[in-house]
Amino acid sequence: MRLRGEITADRPLLVLAAEEEAAHLDEALPVLITGMGKVLAASAVSTVLAGARPAAVVNLGTAGALRSGRSGLHEIGTVLQHDLDTTLLRTLTGRSYGSPLVLGPAGPVLATGDLFVSAEAARARLAERADLVDMEGYAVAWAAAQAGVPCRLIKQVSDDAGEGAARTWQESVDDCARVLAGWVAVNLR
Fold it and tell me: Is the pTM of this model over 0.90?
């Protein structure tokens, strides 16, 4: 976890998983780099929000496309956990854990999980429920909701999740970081 800049009530906090994704952001807004995965993202955001309250949390990052042809920048409408069996947990306990989070009235569905989706079978299964996949979005949104802070998820498609990706994350992350920084410059100033 690394926080740069001062968090104030009148500015959003930008949250990203990796330094590579934040490479082209300027110093105008505070930036939290959480590390990859749900545990690191949730704990970093929760820790920071326990001591400061920004105007909003904006999770910027890359995502894999679960269907061929999906590209570009997207504001997520709903985020779910793809690696938590919510149906089984409800059957066992009678309570719901990890229900999908609705962030807006429109936008693609993002599936978050600690499993890096590289197998075609996993990609096809996820594509039945979601449009994009990442490893932190749900955790960031959940931690923000627990703190009562509004949250937005902005994801740039970096690659097609699965075995047949034309470009890898490593090959596309710098281009994605430029797009994300451009979105911030236009939408959060």
Answer: yes
What is the distance between the alpha carbons of residues 160 and 168, in angstroms, rounded to a whole number?
Answer: 8
Query: What six digits make up the tokens of 25?
Result: 């952001």
* pLDDT computed for residue 89 by the predictor: 61
With beta carbons less than 8 A apart as the criterion, state whether 82 and 133 touch: yes
With CA atoms as reference, report the closest residue to 138 among 148, 153, 123, 158: 153
User: Considering Cα of 24, then 29, then 32, then 38, what sign does the dihedral take?
Assistant: negative
Query: Six-digit token pair at 42?
Result: 């949730």
More confident residue, 88 or 41: 41
Domain range holding 143? 2-187
- How many domains does the chain divide into? 1
33 φ/ψ angles, rounded to the nearest 5 degrees = -100, 115
Q: Read off the CATH number of the domain in which 26 is found.
A: 3.40.50.1580
DSSP label at residue 12: P
Tokens at 45, concatenated: 């955001």
5 to each of 25, 27, 30, 85, 113, how far by Cα in Å? Answer: 12, 7, 4, 38, 28
